[in-house]
User: Fold these one by one.
Assistant:
Number 1:
Amino acid sequence: LVRLWPGALADFTAVSELQAVEKHRLTVIAAARAGRPGRIFSHTSSAAMHRLPMLWPDLSQVHVTSPKVGKRAKHIVRHQATVKPQDIDVIDGVTVTSIERTACDVARLGTNRQALAVLDAALRRDADPDRMRQILDSCRGFKGVEMLRRALAHANASSESIGESLSRAVMLEFPDLPIPRQQVKIFDDHGVFIARVDFLLANRVIGEFDGMIKYSGGLGDEPAWQTVVEEKAREDRLRAQGYRIVWTPHARLIHHESKSRGAEDTPEKLARFEREVEHQLQEAARAGLGQRQ
């Protein structure tokens, strides 16, 4: 068994097979059942309940929002704010902030890249952009409000994945680059449709983001080789029209070192593990790949 929350246990094998967001979702449900009725879960905890995609979320603590801060606790973060009735939802019996309020709260406390990714994701899920702007106006004086203001100005529902939002966020960090147009249909000189591309810059440079699963046979019924051949033919037709293509692959890294050196089950091994994690986070930050929240 594994403890999700004080007084709440779950099957270790079943929980270990879950993705981090789904595990956090179970933790939030356990915390809601153990806490007082009406507690409003917010920020990344509410995002997990909404299953709202996030970029590099910190899921180490449960987040709640209340007019009163109350006492501090090790595994819970209490944010002092008033949540209007229209910004409250109930999901699986858990009281959470609405998708609009949740996205704005997560964006305020993240990086530029994280902020744009979660706001795009909310708009893809039909979040009300007018309500999000009203929430922005009500956040004056809050931590991260300028982060939210900048990201919300660029957020839209056109990015079809977290990866596309991240790609666009990186482009926006370079002021010399034109603002990318998204999901643009490209036709040849005879008006025949060639492709719909993720990004088009200055009407000549195409940006494409693809997850590696697309080329590993993990999507649809087509074999991987057929997907690669069709993609090559598509790119050749685009290049024949004078377009330059910049492709952004998305690698998924999985570390299996513990399978060979054993579990981190002693104080010495756990200390080494924490040092290694900190080192990797510092290296990622230097490379501009994100930072610890």
Note: The chain has a mean pLDDT of 86.
Number 2:
Amino acid sequence: LLQRRLQLDKLHIAQLTIDDQSPAATASAPQGVALPFRVSLAFIIDELRWTGPPALQASALSGRYRFDGNHHQLTIDGVQIAAGQYHAQASLLARAPLTLDLQVQGALTAPVPGSSQTLPLVATASAHGNLAGQDAVLSVQALLQPAPAGAPPAAGSTASHAMQATVSAQVSPWSPQPVIRTDATFNQLDLATLWPGAPLTLLTGTVRVQPDGNDWQGQVQVTNGLSGPWDKGRLPLDSALGQVRYDNGKWVIESLSANLAGGRLQLQGQVGASDQGVVAGGWQGKAQLRNINPA
């Protein structure tokens, strides 16, 4: 440290638990994240647990971190999350405009619906943009698809009906409503394959968010081909169709119709700030439930 440099050839942690119990606070836009010394660190974490929300468990995490005085650079050589093995590279400029460049690659194995076979999948994700200033905007892209195996899959083949997803989004990380625009499509999506502890699903549908003046509107349409009770590790949802609006600091559910738990739910309402911008902290609306089986 006397030479303004910290170097650790290897930091090995058997188990790391992160439990953030600090009071919730509004995030403020940073203008700089420079350190007073250079850093070079290689690390291995056998088990990582983040209490959330949302909770996350990962294993076999290894990588390298470096700060050269101008850039923070993080390389993840490997990490196991649920059924996926991932690696990543990230670079962040230490001073304004805090330019971020993040790349993630992954390989997963997913079950094939109605079969005992499994199918290899590949996942990629990226985030680019500047983090300095209240008007900072990031561009986010993500893709999940069957691993390439030469020729394109024939219609009706296992690969042509495999789990797939595409996401394109613009995010303003320091805004009260950080999602500016989102366009997501997914087919046969199993949440349990992607996230530890998530229910088994086969979700197919679309989610779209688009600006509406200073606010935004969202639409969701989804079906679930593997619905079932929570205690069986399933999601008790067959289908859902809804429209949501974020208006003057409050969430407005314009319409939501869902087939779930053997019955049907219809919902309208709002939660969040009042028209004067004061947080009400409560829910106002109406709901109709028919033939819902809570078991």
Note: Residues 191-194 form the longest helix (4 residues).
Number 3:
Amino acid sequence: VYDLPADAEPMLTLYKHLYDITKGAMTPLVGQLLSDAGYDAAYSLKPGPLHTPPAWDEVLAYDFPKLALKRPALLDFGAVGKGYLIDIIGAMLEDDGIRAYVIDAGGDILDRRKLRQHSSIILNDSIEQNSPPHQNARTEPLFVALENPGNPSQAIGIAKIKNQSICGSAGNRRAWGKFHHIMNPQKLDSVRDVLAVWAVADTAMLADALTTADQHAIFKNGAKEIAAQEDRAITFMAKFDEREGNSCHVHLSVVEEDGGGAVFEQQPEIFHQFLAGQLACLEDLTLLLAPNIN
């Protein structure tokens, strides 16, 4: 049983919340899986047998300020810890009187611009006396380039933040063999279907955490959780790729045998005949197009 310091509560409470809403996909118990895959204390980068991380309640009993481990476990807090450290450093700067600053920790960024209430303000680490705060305030947003995970020399977009944090997560960094550092504990593999995620939040801890959670929680699950908070329910119909979506659409077109122009546009009567045939056969086609309820 461990007695946690006061500043551990925000991080562990957030972890437990995101563990629950991602149905265990984001978990500090991923530490052993990372080590099994070769991302161990020695950075051997040599994968061995992979083991599914246990459930939170099987190992951890968390009731702040107590954290009990029911059995030995290797915990990894990297998905939240870096952002939280940025926030802590920011708080230290503000305690020392610095009100406007930018912290860039390898692409995870915290932008702050808090003004003093009297005529002396600190701006960009220098003191300017007897100037109205509104004349010295940095009011323009901070522009942040979003790195192309396929080519780090390129930007695929620009984000604008102001008095916020932006954090990013991508599998092109810290990659080895067939793995990278963002592991799916349920599939025993690195996340493959998301190339990069950026999140903007009021704190770096939350932005950092959301970049990892978004790697694991597809839109469909997130939308259901949001709906449940509003006492509503969302249902999703079939889609070919088994990911998010709300219906399966099948589009048909008829072209000339030689690949020429669309027949329906050139000969409307054929379209009418085609549509009549679809309607006549629709009941039988339903067995193919909609084999399951909803």
Note: Residues 236 and 246 are 5 Å apart (CA to CA).
Number 4:
Amino acid sequence: VILNAALLRTHLLRRMIQDDIFFITSLFSIGNISKEIINEDGRQKCLLTVDVIPRSEGQETITVKKVIILKHYSNSNVKNVIFSKGILSMNKKVNKIIKQKLNYKKELQNRLPEETCNKIWEKIHQRLTSYYEEYKDLPKRIASHTDTFIFPAAAIYLSIKEYAPDQAFHIMEKMMKERAIKAGESFAKMSKIPGFKTLFFKIWDSMSITAFGEKSGFKNKIYPVQNGEHKMDITHCPYHHYLTKLGCPELTILFCKNDEYSYGNIPGIKFTRTKTIGGGAELCDFKISKKAFSS
């Protein structure tokens, strides 16, 4: 099938694409593609060959078997781009998140056959698209947690579990831990900046109210600071709430552990927590205070 960019935009990507070049560049956010050359220098017209597997009515993803940009007009030079089989979502948010999760795909490829990986990746697109549609009216602060962290984790985990149930939790645990450790290493480097500890504690309570308050889907109790110790109990957690609704409450504990990896090894800062909702307790008890730098 040979279509010009405007026709393709109209029939396949009408809710996503604003111009022809945005269509071309948006394809680069798909996970399993191969790129030869492309020139992204403005609004250039292209002639496209697109081979897709049709989707049923109402679905927001299509399977792209091959996309070839036959002609890219830029100073009379012809540019060719060839894409291998992949998944294209008509949801910009899905494509953006999936692009950030390609490390999961690499991990899957190290463990599972290519065909299985492709099926899992398509399921991830489908699940994430459906989550965003179902919960599109969530308040902005709650969505900052669900759309960026909760829904992607659930979509990835449940999709892996469908094809590799014995490996799903271990993959999520490994990948989430690696990411949180990197965040902790960044905090540790920042702690070397003069005044970092003072600033950290100065904004801790206000950050707790904003990021972990009721408008963000949490319920918490913040205690007066005593002897330099900041205490907060979380009695309702949107991570546990939405992961339970989506059928994977067991993932909550991994997000709990992320806090320990991120905040537990910052020089000059002591982070403790004795229980979590994700671990089966009635609340999460956060305590954070200054400590002497180790030599």
Note: The radius of gyration is 23 Å.
